[in-house]
UniProtKB/TrEMBL annotation:
HTH luxR-type domain mapped to chain residues: 153-218
Top-level taxon of the source organism: Bacteria
InterPro entries: CheY-like_superfamily, NreC/VraR/RcsB-like_REC, Sig_transdc_resp-reg_C-effctor, Sig_transdc_resp-reg_receiver, Tscrpt_reg_LuxR_C, WalR-like
Species per Swiss-Prot/TrEMBL record: Streptomyces africanus
The protein's name: DNA-binding NarL/FixJ family response regulator
């Protein structure tokens, strides 16, 4: 059973989400929050598998709430559900530790699939969309005045083998596990093992965070 906390300042949105989720045999809503502060408190009390997190809420917004929940180190994962498609709020949410995002006009089955994906540690958005999202995300980052300086090895990459570094690079380029297996001539089970080790070694919560790492460490350059 996947437990879900709904954080949204619109009562009707919370009601609709609850009705949808509780129609599923494998999901249950354990709480509702009308703002970010309530979301942080309830996440600490209830330890839900997934928080459906709105961005714009009174008081503490969804971005800061996401940051605080993920910083606590609990198993709870955050799925941003926003009115705004691919804007700076969504990028900030991913940076804060969210496992992915959907827009509020998504189909019900997309939301349900997204919750299930996040609960199992997968990325919500498809790898091809992840690449487009991160390309846009990187272009919103401020220019680093030291970008012309010789690059220094990021400590998060130090423990990776050459093969794991290669796979992290193509994850950042939006390759699926099937594509990685085919193009690198590996069994798909081997790819899954490598991906799991990459996430563990780099401290990445999920595939989206690994993509962000690939960009942050310049393994992948924005197109």
């Amino acid at each position: 059973m996947t437990t879900v906390l709904i954080a949204d300042d619109q009562p009707l949105q919370r009601f609709g989400s609850r009705m949808l989720l509780e129609s599923q045999d494998d999901m249950t809503v354990v709480g509702e929050a009308a703002n970010g502060s309530e979301a942080v408190r309830l996440a600490a009390e209830l330890h839900p598998d997934v928080v459906l997190m709105d961005i714009r809420m009174p008081g503490l917004d969804g971005i800061e709430a996401t940051r605080r929940i993920t910083a606590a180190g609990d198993r709870t994962r955050i799925l941003i559900v926003t009115t705004f498609d691919l804007d700076e709020y969504a990028y900030a949410g991913l940076r804060a530790g969210a496992s992915g995002f959907l827009v509020k006009d998504a189909q019900p089955e997309e939301l349900l699939a997204g919750i299930r994906a996040v609960a199992t540690g997968d990325a919500v958005v498809a790898p091809s969309l992840t690449r487009r999202l991160l390309d846009a995300y990187v272009h919103h980052l401020p220019t680093d005045p030291s970008s012309d300086a010789p690059p220094q090895e990021d400590p998060r990459l130090a423990s990776l083998t050459d093969r794991e570094r290669e796979i992290l690079t193509v994850i950042g380029q939006g390759w699926t596990n099937t594509e990685i297996a085919t193009r690198l001539h590996l069994a798909e089970s081997t790819v899954k093992t490598h991906v799991g080790r990459i996430l563990a070694k780099t401290g990445s919560r999920d595939r989206i965070q690994a993509v962000i790492l690939a960009y942050d460490t310049k393994l992948v350059q924005p197109s």
